[in-house]
Amino acid sequence: MTVARSTxxxxxxxxxxxxxxxxxxxxxxxxxxxxxxxWIKDQELVVGDPDQYKVxxxxxxxxxx
Length: 65
Description:
Layout: E1 4-13, H1 17-31, E2 35-46, E3 52-62
Antiparallel strand pairs: 1-3, 2-3
């Protein structure tokens, strides 16, 4: 039987939404094993100097037996 879990992460980048997603997923893979999917829940532009592209994502991973 396979059991999976999901966790919500927030990543920010001044380069764009794609970069925030890439960095957030790369960081999740450093800590979590068996990452299977990533769902982008929300995107937000935080206006400032510089602007920050904020992504809220749910990462799903399979638990070890």
